[in-house]
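Subject: for your reference before the review

Hello V.,

The reviewers asked for a structural picture of the protein, and I figured it would be easier to keep everything in one thread rather than splitting it across files. Below is the amino acid sequence we used in the manuscript, unchanged from the supplementary table.
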Amino acid sequence: MRIKLLSFKPSVYNKLLSGIKIYEHRKVFPDEPIKAYLYVSYPVCAITGIIYLGKRHSIKEWKTVYSYDEAAVKRIDNYLLTQNYAMEIVKFEETSSIPLTILRTDLKKFVVPQMYYYIDEDSELLKYLQDNIKTTGKTITHKFDNITSDDICVN
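And here is what came back from the structure prediction:
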């Protein structure tokens, strides 16, 4: 499983934390499972949380699948203006927080992701995260066996 550092706005992170966000939408995404550490942007400015992304869906293909639902097609068209794929958020884990000031002190080469970047398996960053990020016990899992048009392109 590849590992990424994904950047989120606080409002999006709060949707993950509440469990209402079940898909992550991006213009480009690999077609493979991903474990992602979450960097939450200003004013939080910290790594906090982990998500596990599963199956990748083509948003364009959803337009055909959900063509019977006019409202869903309209939402899909809006998403297609800026996004191409949706990845299933299989699991979210709330974690301790590592503020940007600490990351920059401890890791001289730390770079805040603009959108995301991959973390190499043997990197200093991954070892640091594995040693310093602790789960809080709050975990949200999503099942995708009863998805309806109401669940598509809503967050």
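For the response letter, the relevant points are probably these. The mean pLDDT is 95. Helices lie at 10-18, 59-65, 70-80, 100-106, 124-132.

Happy to draft the paragraph if you're swamped.

O.
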